[in-house]
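> call design_seq(struct)
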């Protein structure tokens, strides 16, 4: 049972790390994409608007 746990833990650590690094890179690419700049600028100024 110990060997099974170690194998499963190693698998989860390796692929979990790769999964979250990939997810992080996708989120950063989404946030920094030039096509979304206007939308994020509008959202940044929303709290400052006086309606």
């Amino acid at each position: 049972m110990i060997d099974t746990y170690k194998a499963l833990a190693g698998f989860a650590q390796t692929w979990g790390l790769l999964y979250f690094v990939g997810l992080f890179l996708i989120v950063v690419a989404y946030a920094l994409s030039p096509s979304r700049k206007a939308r994020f600028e509008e959202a940044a100024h929303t709290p400052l608007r006086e309606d």
